[in-house]
Amino acid sequence: MPISLPRLTALVSSLLIATLCALPMTAQAQDGKSVEKKTQKKAVDKTHKKPAEKKNKPQARKKIATDEQGEFVNFNEWKDVARFMDEMVDRNHFQRSDLNALFAQTRYVDSAIQLIKPAPVTKPKNWTAYRARFVEPVRINAGVDFWNTYGVALARAEAQYGVPMEIIVGIIGVETVYGRNTGNFRVMDALTTLAFDYPNTANRDARMAFFRGELENTLLLAREAGIDPMSLRGSYAGAIGWPQFMPGSIREYAVDFDGDGKIDLRNSPVDAIGSVAHYLAVHGWQRGEPVAFPVQVSSDNRQWEAMLNQGLEAKYTADELHAAGISTPPLPAGMRFGLVDLQNGTGPTEYWIATNNFYAITQYNRSYFYAMSVADLGRAVATARNR
After folding, report:
1. pLDDT digits (tens, 9 = 90+) for 79-124
2. What percentage of the chain carries pLDDT values higher than 90?
3. Higher confidence at residue 312 or residue 29?
């Protein structure tokens, strides 16, 4: 039977509507929905998963080094975060509503996760290459300017704490190039991310406990100083200011060295100077003692090998070193030493004997390379300044 024009028009319209309804959503809509689901799923499922499971982890940004802003996840829905807030209320008398509001602003920073992961062992350690990163013209020239500007405070710190000016200059130079690179991660973001989603490494539990402690210290530090915790910025690991102190170290070791009534390692180089010296003094620095001496080790008498990797302390006498096949320069009487190996890739290893002052520097950063770079940079700045 012939179809009338009105009926034909209605039929075509119905077919068109059915076809359009069958089409997929736009890519933008699909992506938006997918991202939203992943974020919500992470917030809900996070506390029910084993540490190694990462299926619903927020996607890492491509440019790790510049991803300091993070992305939103609802930390208030993470059970471990909720327990942490309960502890803060019970132990430190915070208001739960204030903590909820704070963690609602806190963002997940995937780049902190990526940067904290141990570097893959692809080639041998190289002391010469490491040293070249820190003992170089930019840092040396900046160190000379820093020393010339703050020489009075440096001299006062040396007199008060017994730590030489060049060691203080070396630490601040290695850490931040004298305040130029103090970090731009929000400390709350970095520490919360690491405290509750540390990567799956052998020491994961210990590291998560450490960062939860630093997160607690951040909240306490902000309350004590009367500042917004979200205003604190630092490294991807949460270190703050010119000397890169962790929040707990600020509360325990930082000093008001400029006498203005407050401790401010972000904006006061003088506070940074006094705080570095105080930290080292508390951690075993001995006034007037040297740091390290270069030595030669015997290829025949290899008893010295048993002295390597014996902890961060000086424990051997000069006679014990000599008996083990170590040739030393003249040494101060009555001191003890540890044997340090500075590997140079495929080249020959450098051997040094370290004093308790060397090991005091390793309490700042537990690395032989770091401690020796601090000493070398400080010495290079002193030499350049005296030319």
Report:
1. 999 999 999 999 999 999 999 999 999 999 999 999 999 888 777 8
2. 79
3. 312
Residue with tokens 């270190």: 239
Give the closest residue to 171 by CA, choosing from 247, 265, 305, 92: 265
Range 140-150 average pLDDT: 98
| Beta sheet of 292-297, edge-to-edge order | 326-327, 292-297, 347-354, 338-344
Per-chain mean pLDDT for the chain: 87
Picking from 238, 253, 269, the residue whose alpha carbon sits closest to that of residue 168 is 269
| Contact (CB, 8 A) for 359 and 314 | yes
The token pair at 308 is 């390597």
pLDDT for 63 beyond 60: no
pTM above 0.85, yes or no: no
Q: Residue by residue, what is the 3-state secondary structure of the chain?
A: CCCCHHHHHHHHHHHHHHHHHHCCCCHHHHHHHHHHHHHHHHHHHHHHCCCCCCCCCCCCCCCHHHCCCCEECCHHHCHHHHHHHHHHHHHHCCCHHHHHHHHHHCEECHHHHHHHCCCCCCCCCEHHHHHHHHCCHHHHHHHHHHHHHCHHHHHHHHHHHCCCHHHHHHHHHHHHCCCCCCCCEEHHHHHHHHHHHCCCCCCHHHHHHHHHHHHHHHHHHHHHHCCCHHHCEECCCCCECCCCECHHHHHHHCCCCCCCCCCCCCCCHHHHHHHHHHHHHHCCCCCCCCCEEEEEECCCCCHHHHHCCCCCCCCECHHHHHHCCEECCCCCCCCCEEEEEEEECCEEEEEEEECHHHHHHHCCCCCHHHHHHHHHHHHHHHHHHCC
**Residues known to be catalytic:** 175
355 vs 28: CA distance, rounded Å: 62
C-alpha span between 138 and 35 (Å, rounded): 44
The distance from CA 277 to its chain's CA centroid, rounded to whole angstroms, is 20
